[in-house]
Amino acid sequence: MAASPAIQIAPKLLAPAESQVDFGARPPGTRSEPPVANARLALLLFMATETMLFAGLMGIFVVFRVGSRAWPPVGQPYLPIAVTWINTAILMASGWTMWRAAAANRRSAGAHIGTDLSATFALGSLFLAVQGFEWVRLIHHGLTLSSSVYGGTFYILIGLHALHVIGAVGWLAVVMRGVSRGRYAPASSQAVGLCGMYWGYVCALWLVLFWLAYLM
Amino acid sequence: MSETAAVGAHAHGAHAEHHELGFIRTYVFSTDHKMIGRQFLFMGLFMMILGGLLALLVRWQLAWPESEVPFTQWIPEPHMYAGHMDAAAYNSFFTMHATIMIFFVVMPILVGAFGNFLIPLMIGTRDMAFPLLNMLSFWIALFSGFIMLAGFCIPGETHAASGWTAYSPLAAVPAFTGVNAGQNLWCISLIVLGISSLMGSINYITTIINMRAPGMGFFRLPLTIWALFIVAILLLLALPVLTGALAMLLFDRMAGTSFFQPAGGGEPLLWQHLFWFFGHPEVYILILPAMGIASDILSVFSRKPIFGYRAMAFSMIGIAFLSWIVWGHHMFQSGMNPALGTTFMISTMVIAVPSAIKTFNWLGTLWGGNIIFSVPMLNALAFVSMFVIGGLSGIYMASTPVDIFIHDTYFIVAHIHYVVFGGSVFGIFAAVYFWFPKMFGRMMNETLGKIHFWPTFLAFNGTFFPMHILGIGGHMRRIYNPLQYDFLKPMQPINVFITVSALCLGVAQIPFVINFFWSLFAGKKATINPWNANTLEWDAPSPPPHGNFGEIPTVYRGPYEYSSPLVPEDFLPQSRKLAPEVSARASH
Q: Angle at Cα B308 formed by Cα B304 and Cα B314, nearest 5°?
């Protein structure tokens, strides 16, 4: 397109010069502050994408589970339900301590945060240790990734969750270090809140997976 | 100014003149959204050349199956044997053509390049919400491209050869295609690209929700931004499903599992469901940004407001939602329950409603407009017309009784190319010509642009329209040598015509390449708003500096107020504040 000719604008229609525009007088519909902070929104979106990932994998599990004549297939071991109940309780306890830490963080009650975060860290690590111990036993009994689709879907689904818990424990370690060094003072920090949110997600996800893989 | 905008202003505007970044931080590991957009553009254009050349190899083979392909003697075995290709090489070439064009051309350019470049500029902010994440998303995408291309360099083996759909067990058992490492690299590359796309999507959505300029309500967003916002949501929710499936396919190939192999108790159809649950939204991921871009360009060069702005936005939302529930129409031939097939047929046909709303609104925008046939406008018009043809052929495939006959024929190939080339690639050309002045500060040459457009448009139709005829005639796709089938021999002249047109289409891109690089260095200097457009990016200098705007603009109106009676000129930028008495007149 050719350059347009100089346009004559009636002066009375013009706004004041740029420097004189009152940026404080906002037009209708203008927000002063986003309702959700960037990092929190990003984490929510990340959790949405994780939910879709797990939904796909759970769909695969259900297809195999429903389409199978015997579950577990002949020659494959049953999953250890009793110890997994206990392990579930451990993870839920970690969710409770994390909730306490997050609540203390919101109240800026700094003294309790470190203790609760440490308890969460310990319980999360214990959950992983118990699960690892059970996996060794299951492999010993012939349940491997390639032994059947039963074994394959189990390790994919539960293993991916375990990876998430490992990630959450690592994140928690970073946050604990920050708290112990006073990096997040005053205590009401976004770092603790976000980590708590993710921890809660991992715990809630486990309840669904536990029901699906072990109890269904 | 919002808090985030204020922070951004402090981070960029206030200090922009105080710190000079070095070459590496400016041009290589840049966190500036504009540079990342340009990086994605160059990556996509390079891959477009590669993907296009692969297509020409495939077309040559189909037209003259027994002859030597010119200029290919240098390609090593097993891809080519002294200028000849075998069936394995053919499979590999069409697989890689599709993969490269979809994942490394259209997505990086429309979503990566223009998304990155335009979102902060068009919503009136200084950068993306997470600039470092943005930089990482480009470098991970580039890394993924290297992984994909590495498949060509494996000694003694062709690249992935199971088609871009990677249907199992073809893709899961290396013995079926004779490809092992190439197919593994294909899977790994797409998993890595998925990570990059998720990073980008999170960034886009957060930026659009949280960092809009004062006054920039959702219904004042340009339709390009609406489209990119919807696409980011689609990517965010569709890609993880494919990523999980790809990981399981890799396990099948490398770890002895059999999720998708019937021999081990697996379900090949499960792969198809998972793939198309991603794959069908993916089609809209490719076309929606072009829809937004065409909407903006049609309005600018018609000098008219877009017809039915809200209907356009809502129809994009409708298309995106419906794209989730229609994946089964890719699987009508898989032995699906007829009741389920009918459900998928009806839901697929319903997509015609929002698509028609968009098409009629584009026509409504053009109707009575003061149309300027600039090169961006020509490409946008080509987008609309080709998308209509692609959409109409889609109706045939949505219909189960017809699909039974035309599935896996060249009719499908014609349809996808009318949508992805006729739609997305003309959208890319339109966008490049339109925003080149803002991206690089120089104008592209209009004459060269028209020399590029018209042969491209004609050769495109010469290439892909006859494929409808081939398909209805029963010409299967993905065959290596049509002359092996007696019933296909009468159709061979059409194959030759298509290949000649395809070669012309390839040659027609030379003016574009010349124009792009010549204009980059010697094009006419662009003014701040060479097209007299309304949207906010035209408030920033050409090219915009670090931080984009001197002062974050305030938005007073929608993006399409062309030929407004309130002002004597035929455009009214979103950020121009009118005197109170004029605003009062507008409200009455």
A: 140
With beta carbons under 8 A apart, name residues in chain A contacting B266.
149
Phi, psi of B179 (to 5 degrees): -115, 130
> How confident is the model over A102-159, as pLDDT tens digits?
988 888 766 678 899 999 999 999 999 999 999 999 999 999 999 999 999 999 999 9
* Residue B55, token pair as written in the block: 């297509």
B237 shares contact with chain A (CB less than 8 Å): yes
Q: Answer whether B568 sits within 8 Å of A46, measured CB to CB.
A: no
Contact B336, B274 (CB under 8 A): no
- Disruptive mutation site among A1, A61, A62, A146 for chain B (greatest number of B CBs within 10 Å): A1
Is the ipTM above a cut-off of 0.90?
yes
Q: Which residue shows structure tokens 């050309």? A: B429
Q: DSSP of A126-169, one letter per residue?
A: HHHHHHHHHHHHHHHTT--TTT-HHHHHHHHHHHHHHHHHHHHH
- The three-state secondary structure class of B476 is strand
Q: Do A1 and B301 touch (CB under 8 A)?
A: yes
Q: Could you tell me the CA-to-CA distances from B403 to A188, B345, B396 in Å, in that order?
A: 60, 10, 7
User: Cα(B388)–Cα(B397) distance, rounded to whole angstroms?
Assistant: 15
Assign B561 to helix, strand or coil: coil
Size of chain A, expressed as the number of residues it contains? 216
The H-or-E segment that residue A209 falls in is helix A190-209
Which ranges of B441-575 does DSSP label H, i.e. alpha helix?
446-472, 492-507, 510-522
* Average pLDDT per block of 10 residues along chain B, 588 residues long: 41 52 85 96 97 96 92 88 91 96 97 97 95 96 97 92 94 91 96 97 96 94 97 96 96 94 91 95 95 97 96 96 92 89 94 96 96 97 96 93 92 96 96 97 97 98 97 94 94 97 97 97 96 96 93 93 92 90 68
> Chain A window 60-99: which residues touch B at a Cβ cutoff of 8 Å?
60, 63-64, 67, 73
User: Cα separation of B189 and B168, whole Å?
Assistant: 18
Candidates A38, A74, A156, partner chain B, best to mutate (most B CBs within 10 A): A38
Backbone dihedral angles phi then psi of residue B525, each to the nearest 5 degrees = -60, 135
Which pair of tokens denotes residue B379? Answer: 């490409």
Cβ <8 Å between A145 and B255 = yes
Residue A32 at interface with chain B, using a CB cutoff of 8 Å:
yes
Give dist(CA B356, CA B363) in Å, integer: 10
**Contact: A42, B202; criterion CB under 8 Å:** yes
CB contacts < 8 A, A to B, total 149
Residue B257: both structure tokens together: 């599992």
Q: Does A139 touch chain B (CB under 8 A)?
A: no
Judged by CB atoms closer than 8 Å, whether chains meet at A145 and B251 is answered as: yes
Q: How many CA atoms lie within 13 A of B127 on its CB side?
A: 25
Q: Does B17 touch chain A (CB under 8 A)?
A: no
